[in-house]
């Protein structure tokens, strides 16, 4: 670190000094001490990072500018909503895990808001006046849409697998193909989830080839179930063979062994309906006769984070009685969001579900919006702007080999590196996330909302290019 940087860092006040000064400022009375301390610490960290990145002289005007900047940024933090905030997703990744995955439909969000601000009959049987079940509200609609006998909703799909293992396979064997021992994100892996549920994993076959006889030969008196894991986030291509769900169910019926399938990104639609690779649907998997299946609520379903379990009623009832179910249960807001989303499927209003609306956008629509954005940015003299063909992706572990055709707005600063523009956009009051490709910043309209275009334009015009 240079002497200049050391000198600059010494100009920064301590947390206590800055909190005391902010507390005396006009407009600070509405904030409590913990909130002010949090904002001061966050802004001081930001200031240190910026000083370390730049070569500046510790002149008198720097001190004045620093004081003004610190106070401005602290009040900006206080007026904001903390560290969780809205972002603009211009990456073209529809189910962006880092950005919260699926967007709720406005109708579903409105139902959540109603349930959040009013009392409800969450666990009340209005007919009898006695205590009811929170799962009842979503069970009828799930069984109607899928054909399953019964359902249970927990807080995510890993929790669903964990609960199934703990209920039916604690200290018993679960047979899984080696080619399906996937990592499901954030370094969480199917073998570890099974182990946490008390199951003993029995691996069969090889990474690229597993046959029905591999399962048959592995079954013993200790076998609790055969588990099929849908490889949502990867594909093995070429010299490859996997046992189908129907084949596995046939073997299970023959030997009296339950078959459970983890669908990962479960969908009510075949991929081919939208020009995507063929994928098993939730309804097809139920119809195949599996004992239980589970999938995520916030991926291709387009709802809230949840783990949805479908299957035979007697098995679902056993899951509900497991003490873990209370620890993994969902609250009224998740139930409301799920019901609000499923109602749109019931009504056939698929176009209102943001995930499927974005997937089904046409070439003409994307080109129109890319040109609209380019026109908003065309008067920035030090910025190259062009419209070009590109690709979007679904993300979230869904259709990993499928690329969606897109038309994007690409921009390139003439006098500075493109990564500085990317950082400037990302650090806006409403962060704007884009991606860099070959020295161009790519803004993909597939994942933009109608109000995003003006915000992007205003931020772009604010940069000193």
Largest sheet: 7 strands, mixed
Work out the strand percent.
15-25%
CATH-level-2 architecture of the largest domain = 3-Layer(aba) Sandwich
Number of domains: 3
- Based on CA atoms alone, the radius of gyration comes out at 27 Å
Kindly report the CATH topology of the largest domain: Aspartate Aminotransferase, domain 2
Average of pLDDT: 88
Q: What coarse outline follows from CA principal-axis ratios? A: globular
Structural class: alpha/beta
Question: At the fourth CATH level, what is the homologous superfamily of the largest domain?
Answer: Type I PLP-dependent aspartate aminotransferase-like (Major domain)
* Contiguous runs where pLDDT drops below 50 for at least 5 residues: 55-64
The span between the termini is 28 Å
CATH class bucket of the largest domain: Alpha Beta
Secondary structure tally: strands:
14
Strand order of the largest sheet: 3-9-8-7-6-4-5
Number of helices: 18
- Percent helix: 40-55%
Describe the fold and architecture.
This protein is an alpha/beta fold. The protein folds into 3 domains: 76 residues, no CATH class; 116 residues, Aspartate Aminotransferase, domain 1 (Alpha-Beta Complex); 247 residues, Aspartate Aminotransferase, domain 2. It has 18 helices and 14 strands. The strands form 3 sheets. It has a 7-stranded mixed sheet, with helices on both faces. The chain has a 5-stranded mixed sheet with strand order 2-10-11-14-13. The protein is globular.
């Amino acid at each position: 670190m240079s002497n200049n940087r050391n000198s600059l860092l010494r100009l920064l006040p301590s947390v206590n000094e800055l909190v005391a000064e902010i507390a005396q400022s006009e407009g600070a009375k509405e904030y409590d001490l913990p909130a002010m301390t949090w904002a001061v610490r966050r802004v001081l960290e930001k200031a240190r990072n910026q000083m370390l990145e730049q070569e500046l002289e510790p002149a008198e005007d720097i001190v004045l500018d620093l004081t003004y900047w610190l106070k401005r940024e602290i009040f900006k933090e206080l007026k904001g909503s903390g560290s969780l905030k809205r972002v603009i997703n211009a990456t073209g990744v529809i189910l962006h895990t880092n950005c919260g995955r699926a967007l709720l439909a406005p109708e579903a969000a409105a139902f959540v808001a109603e349930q959040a601000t009013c009392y409800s009959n969450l666990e009340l049987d209005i007919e009898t006046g006695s205590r009811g079940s929170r799962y009842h509200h979503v069970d009828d609609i799930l069984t109607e849409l899928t054909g399953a006998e019964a359902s249970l909703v927990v807080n995510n799909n890993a929790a669903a697998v964990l609960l199934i293992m703990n209920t039916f396979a604690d200290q018993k064997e679960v047979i899984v193909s080696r080619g399906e021992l996937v990592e499901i994100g954030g370094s969480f892996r199917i073998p570890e989830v099974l182990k946490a549920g008390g199951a003993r994993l029995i691996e069969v076959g090889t990474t690229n080839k597993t046959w029905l006889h591999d399962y048959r030969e592995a079954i013993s008196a200790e076998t609790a179930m055969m588990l099929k894991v849908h490889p949502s986030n990867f594909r093995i291509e070429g010299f490859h063979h996997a046992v189908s769900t129907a084949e596995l169910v046939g073997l299970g019926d023959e030997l009296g062994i339950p078959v459970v399938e983890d669908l990962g990104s479960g969908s009510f639609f075949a991929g081919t309906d939208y020009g995507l690779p063929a994928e098993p649907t939730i309804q097809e998997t139920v119809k195949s006769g599996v004992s239980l299946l589970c999938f995520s609520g916030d991926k291709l379903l387009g709802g809230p984070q949840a783990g949805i379990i479908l299957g035979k009623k007697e098995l679902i009832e056993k899951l509900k009685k497991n003490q873990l179910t209370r620890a993994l249960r969902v609250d009224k807001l998740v139930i409301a969001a799920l019901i609000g989303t499923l109602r749109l499927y019931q009504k056939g209003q698929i176009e209102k579900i943001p995930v499927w609306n974005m997937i089904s956008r046409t070439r003409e629509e994307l080109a129109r919006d890319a040109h609209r954005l380019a026109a908003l940015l065309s008067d920035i003299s030090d910025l190259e702007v062009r419209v070009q063909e590109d690709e979007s992706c679904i993300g979230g572990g869904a259709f990993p080999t499928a690329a969606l055709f897109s038309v994007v707005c690409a921009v390139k600063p003439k006098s500075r590196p493109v990564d500085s523009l990317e950082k400037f956009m990302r650090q806006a009051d409403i962060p704007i996330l884009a991606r860099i490709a070959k020295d161009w910043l790519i803004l993909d309209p597939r994942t933009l909302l109608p109000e995003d275009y003006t915000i992007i334009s205003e931020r772009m015009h604010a940069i000193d290019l």
